């Protein structure tokens, strides 16, 4: 990795779902770049504690906050805690999501699987953007990054509810980018497949999906979460100050979108 410079010196960053996977790497990368980090979790407290340890090992500090982001009252309580501890918030990364990893095909869709994904990925992202965005707007500054997915390009015959929820995030991003401008910028970061433990445990990944994705990826590699955490955070830096309502893809060229 190239030399890291402090793009977030003196800033505060909240990352949802930061106990494991991509969220943990975003939190640690933000800490390496000077941020104080609020590490959110819903049920993986041990993971959040480990992430906070890594934040401190990176030379920064932070707090742990807990909430089920499908519940607005819990989001409000979490926001209260962040403002109490940090005095405000500069960056929100809405990373947490449910992709129904155990679901192997569209015929396996259940009411519970549908509700879980829509509640967390779509409703949760909207509520987080709404609640935190309103407070950031009142403070006169801030940046929100909603973690989407390139699944919106090709859809998902495995878990169509996941593709639907991630597509909905684009609407959330564009709507609040307009509502909160110019004080708060809102953008979507869309990673492709990442070699997380969760992905590597999926049966379709073990049965040849990995090789198929690699064959369709011009860069010839599937990124680890740490390798693209900095790209995600770029959307919250001064370098992207004129970008809002945007959709940035980082998937090694697997899906090339645009004009």
From TrEMBL:
UniProt cross-references to SUPFAM superfamilies, sorted A to Z: NAD(P)-binding Rossmann-fold domains (SSF51735)
Record key words, sorted: Oxidoreductase
Family annotation (InterPro entries): NAD(P)-bd_dom_sf (IPR036291), Sc_DH/Rdtase_CS (IPR020904), SDR_fam (IPR002347)
PANTHER family found in the cross-reference section: OXIDOREDUCTASE, SHORT-CHAIN DEHYDROGENASE/REDUCTASE FAMILY (AFU_ORTHOLOGUE AFUA_5G02870) (PTHR43639), SHORT-CHAIN DEHYDROGENASE_REDUCTASE FAMILY PROTEIN (PTHR43639:SF1)
Annotated family: Belongs to the short-chain dehydrogenases/reductases (SDR) family.
The name this protein goes by in its record: SDR family oxidoreductase
Species assigned in the record: Microbacterium elymi
């Amino acid at each position: 990795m190239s030399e890291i410079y402090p793009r977030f010196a003196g800033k505060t960053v909240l990352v949802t779902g930061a106990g494991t996977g991509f969220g943990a790497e975003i939190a640690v990368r933000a800490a390496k770049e000077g941020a104080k980090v609020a590490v959110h979790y819903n049920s993986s407290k041990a993971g959040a504690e480990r992430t906070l340890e890594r934040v401190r090992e990176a030379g920064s500090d932070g707090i742990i906050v807990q909430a089920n982001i499908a519940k607005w009252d819990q989001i409000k309580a979490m926001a209260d805690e962040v403002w109490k501890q940090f005095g405000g918030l500069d960056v929100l990364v809405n990373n947490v999501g449910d992709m129904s990893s155990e679901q192997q095909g569209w015929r396996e869709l259940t009411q519970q699987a549908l509700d879980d994904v829509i509640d967390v990925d779509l409703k949760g992202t909207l509520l987080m953007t709404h609640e935190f965005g309103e407070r950031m707007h009142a403070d006169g500054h801030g940046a929100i990054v909603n973690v989407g997915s390139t699944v919106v390009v090709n859809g998902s015959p495995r878990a169509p509810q996941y593709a639907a929820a991630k597509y909905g995030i684009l609407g959330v991003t564009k709507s609040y980018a307009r509502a909160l401008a110019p004080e708060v910028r809102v953008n979507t970061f869309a990673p492709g497949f990442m070699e997380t433990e969760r992905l590597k445990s999926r049966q379709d990944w073990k049965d040849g999906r990995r090789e198929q994705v690699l064959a369709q990826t011009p860069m010839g590699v599937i990124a680890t979460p740490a390798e693209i955490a900095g790209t995600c955070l770029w959307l919250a830096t001064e370098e992207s100050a004129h970008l809002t309502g945007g959709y940035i893809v980082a998937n090694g060229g697997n899906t090339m979108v645009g004009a």
